[in-house]
């Protein structure tokens, strides 16, 4: 019984200590950052092939213009 009570007290103390200052504003900022990262990743995923191909073509054109 005493052991069980001690575990409950320590877990209660743990959660009381771990609450922190995460309020509505903190949650909203976290969700906003996750959504922003998702949008950036979706944009890069759809346009990365075009961007890489354009950069590669530009490098090859410069190399060809330098070497003649």
Number of helices: 2
- Give the biggest beta sheet: none
Note poorly predicted spans: none
Q: Residue share in helices?
A: over 70%
Portion in strands: under 5%
Shape category: rod-shaped
Write structural notes for this entry.
88% of the residues lie in helices and 0% in strands. The longest helix is centred in the C-terminal third of the chain and has 44 residues, at 24-67. The termini are far apart. The protein has helices at 2-17, 24-67. It has 68 residues and is mainly alpha-helical.
Short description:
This protein is an all-alpha fold. Helices cover 88% and strands 0% of the residues.
Which structural traits does this protein have?
68 residues, rod-shaped, mainly alpha
List the helices and strands and how they pair.
Elements: H1 2-17, H2 24-67
């Amino acid at each position: 019984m005493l052991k069980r009570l001690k575990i409950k007290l320590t877990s209660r103390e743990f959660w009381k200590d771990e609450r922190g200052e995460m309020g509505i504003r903190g949650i909203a900022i976290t969700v906003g950052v996750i959504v922003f990262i998702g949008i950036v990743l979706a944009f890069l995923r759809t346009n990365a092939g075009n961007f890489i191909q354009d950069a590669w073509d530009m490098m090859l054109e410069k190399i060809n213009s330098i070497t003649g």
